[in-house]
Amino acid sequence: MAAIKSVMVGTTRVDPPEIVGGCRIITLPKIADVRGNLSYVEGGRHIPFAIRRAYWIYDVPGGALRGGHAYHKLEEFIIAASGSFDVVVDDGMERQVVQLNRSYLGLYVPSMVWRQIENFSSNSVTLILGSLPYSEEDYLRDYEAFARARHEGRK
User: Fold this and answer.
1) What DSSP string describes 110-147?
2) Which residues are catalytic?
3) Which domains are assigned to the chain?
4) What is the pLDDT of residues 40-76, one digit of tens each?
5) What is the pTM for the complete model shown?
């Protein structure tokens, strides 16, 4: 597997080119207001799928990892609603680490991309929007099986 490449996401590097496996950063609308900023997302408009599920991860203990799987069909959009964390994305051939730390930026992760979330800051909240309802059958939880399926899909 190739070395990990980092893509920093923040005020200086926004909307980088495509990331491993077709992942990409998407900038959401940001309405600046002295009372507090507002951002929003609409499925099919800002992200390339209709939103069928939303869930969030919070109160993550120091050093804990989340994810560590891929999906056969599900697409996701991952947002750092608060705080920061790293998303490791892997297409079976190459890996990249994407740091999310702005609530108006999100990472689109298509199906058949392995993802793991790590390095959570204190009080971070990870908001994940999904293209499908929950289905245990859609998960690929074994990395080697994922890599084989991904390789077979390239033929």
Assistant:
1) -TT-EEEEE-PPTT-EEEEEESS---GGGEE--HHHHH
2) 69
3) 5-30+44-154 (2.60.120.10)
4) 999 999 999 999 999 999 999 989 999 999 999 999 9
5) 0.87
